[in-house]
Amino acid sequence: MYKAIVFDLDGTAVANTREATPSQRLIKAVAAARGHSHLIAATGRPFSAAMPVIAALGLTDPCVILGGTVIIDPKTHTVVQQITLTPAAVAAIFNALKPFPYQLYIRDEGIGESLSAAPHHLNAEIEIMFAEDVVEPDATHMKQVLNAIPDTLATSAPSWSGRGEIIMITHRNGTKEHAVAEVLRQLGVKKAQTIGVGDGDNDVHLFAAVGHKIAMGNAGPALKAAADEIAPHIDEDGLAQIIERYGIKK
């Protein structure tokens, strides 16, 4: 019934650290499912942090990075689609974040930019911006302020440091929902034939693009409430078990 499995990386395919690598069981499950199902990563990671995991898994189908703003071809490392924030939105985001005491990161490589450097970027089109280690109630307030900016979307996921949340800021059409829908269109796979697996609250956008929604055992209560099924915890190779069950045609 299912022709594609789309999955998050941090907290789903690998532990929530930049240096994390996939388990041997997951690597073997992906290899066994190759030729049976399309396997697609959909992550907030930038290219430099996503590609080592994608390569270790041996993924060949188009994958989604930078929160849904970029689709890449893992075989050639080329960009298939790119959605950017407008210069006007970038300027509004910088101004909106000035009251918040957090480092802002731009684009792919996680280069920190102080808010005093904002003029350098005000005329740029940027795929994604990050604020890291944001604690409550700042995280909620920050998302409210940012989501009031036209064509801008702010979502959150656990920080790699474990000291709060990472706030990801993109164009409203640069989400996992939009990017996964485009990948499925390119592959000729229907939404109803697709499984989505995630753990973070931002994976609600991934869920919107798939027919069968699976939350990891380590997911938060909001994502579990939106899921059709709960997978085992990442420490129990939950994603590998899902691929073994659904991704290999018997």
What does this structure look like?
There is one protein chain. The protein is α/β, with parallel strands linked by helices. It has 2 domains: 4-82 and 174-246, HAD superfamily/HAD-like (Rossmann fold), CATH 3.40.50.1000; 87-171, Hypothetical Protein, Haloacid Dehalogenase-like Hydrolase, Chain: A, domain 2 (2-Layer Sandwich), CATH 3.30.1240. The protein has 8 helices and 13 strands. Strand 9 and strand 10 form a beta hairpin. The radius of gyration is 17 Å and the shape is globular. Mean pLDDT is 90; it is low at 108-116.
What are the key terms here?
13 strands, Rossmann fold, Hypothetical Protein, Haloacid Dehalogenase-like Hydrolase, Chain: A, domain 2, 8 helices, five-stranded antiparallel beta sheet, five-stranded parallel beta sheet, 250 residues, alpha/beta
Short overview:
This protein has 8 helices and 13 strands. It has about 250 residues and is an alpha/beta fold. The chain has a 5-stranded parallel sheet, with helices on both faces.
Overall shape: it is globular
Rg value: 17 Å
The succession of helices and strands, N to C, reads EHEHEEEHEEEHEEHEHEHEH
Indicate the mean pLDDT: 90
- Secondary structure class reads alpha/beta
Put simply, the count of helices is 8
- CATH level 3 topology of the largest domain: Rossmann fold
Considering the protein shown, what is the CATH homologous superfamily of the largest domain? HAD superfamily/HAD-like
Low-confidence regions: 108-116
The domain tally reads 2
